[in-house]
Structures are given as C-alpha cells and as structure tokens.
Specification:
Layout (H helix, E strand, L loop, with lengths): L2 E14 L3 H4 L12 E14 L2 E2 L4 E8 L8 E8 L4 H11 L14 E10 L1 E5 L3 E6 L3 E6 L10 E2 L11 E2 L3 E8 L2 E18 L1
Parallel strand pairs: 5-6
Antiparallel strand pairs: 1-2, 1-13, 2-3, 2-4, 4-5, 7-8, 8-9, 9-12, 10-11, 12-13
C-alpha cells in the first residue's frame, strides 16, 4: 500500500506566539502551565491513498497534550470534511492512525488516547497571506503569514518533531475558538503556522 498527500497546512495552538514546542523540537514546554492544545488543518490539493483519490478533501487534527509534549499521553481526534465519502474517510483513518507509515506514524509513541474520526463541514479560506479555518460550529480561527518586505514568508527551519515540517511558516492567529472531542481553548494572538505540506508513505 502506498499513499501521498500534498497541499496547504494551517495550524493554531493554545500557546502564545511562537509555540516553543515547535521551535525547540519538543525540548521546551508550552507557554501554558497545564496543557498544550492544538488544531492542525490540512487542505489536500492532490492525494491518493491505496488507489483512492482524496484530492480536494480536507481534515483537521485536534489534540490535548501535557505542557511538555514529549511526555506523551496525547488525546487526539480527527475531523474529515463532510464531502468525503465512506471510503475516503476510512483511508484517511488508516493514514492518520500511523498504520500506513509516513509522518503520522512518528506521532504514534506520543498517543495516549485516540478520540475517533468524525465528519463536519470544513471551510479553509486563504488569499496567500490571510487564512480563516472553520469546522462547523466546533472550530474557528484566523491567521496571517509573517512576511518580509520582499513578500517572502518568515520561516522556522530544521523542525524535525512536527508532521508538517521541516520548514514551518510563521502565521500567528489573531483569534481562535476550538471545542471538539471535549477539547476546548480560545484566545487572541496565539501561535500559528501556515505552509505547504507533502506526505507520503
């Protein structure tokens, strides 16, 4: 079985910008004392999983972790857009569980509880600088890429402990509200990233 997913990635987490878990490759704990919570939105431009075309689909991973993410015991749930059919949802489940290898498999040692896969309307709007992610009434956040005068995005490089690395584009989130799988957080001026992703297994 082989698969590949390519597209755009938009992250929000409960840390004050910029998330120390990311830039330290999990060596530093989150800016909050009691948890790190995040929503990772993936807009799949082109993708195929074991012969099933998943181009044009999107999914969001939601998680609750200890402030030091390397401690493990992550609680993770996945929402797939409601336009995906049953076969596509099943294939996403295989990939995101780590069963088919690739970047998601690297998260396996940290997983404490998988909260399941649900479907909901997902909207990801982006003009190349600003983006807005909504998942039904569950998730809503907006971010803006940090750019230089040249228009190039400011990035973090050599990020090996993040599934959307190794280059992460800074895109702090101005406002966020997340409530899914019993995982809740909200706030202003929180950490965020936006960049391309390319997975295969």
């Amino acid at each position: 079985m082989s698969w590949n997913l390519e597209g755009d990635f938009y992250e929000n987490c409960s840390c004050d910008a910029i998330c120390p878990c990311t830039w330290s490759n999990l060596a530093h704990k989150a800016t909050r004392d009691d948890y790190c919570r995040f929503a990772l939105a993936f807009d799949v431009e082109q993708g195929e999983i074991d012969g099933v075309d998943v181009s044009g689909r999107s999914f969001v991973m939601v998680a609750d972790t200890p402030p030091n993410m390397a401690d493990g015991n992550w609680r993770v749930g996945v929402i797939v857009d409601d336009g995906a059919n049953e076969e596509q949802v099943g294939k996403f489940g295989q990939v995101l569980s780590g069963e088919m290898g690739g970047p998601p498999a690297a998260l396996g040692p940290f997983l404490g509880e998988f909260l399941g896969i649900e479907q909901a309307p997902i909207s990801i709007e982006s003009d190349g600088k600003n983006h807005h992610v909504t998942v039904g009434e569950l998730i809503d956040y907006s971010g803006e890429r940090v750019t230089l005068e040249s228009g190039d995005q400011v990035t973090l490089t050599n990020i090996v402990a993040h599934p959307a690395g190794p280059t992460m584009g800074l895109a702090p989130v101005s406002d966020a509200r997340v409530s899914a799988f019993g995982i809740e957080y909200s706030g202003q001026d929180l950490s965020g990233f936006a960049n391309r992703f390319n997975w295969s297994g």
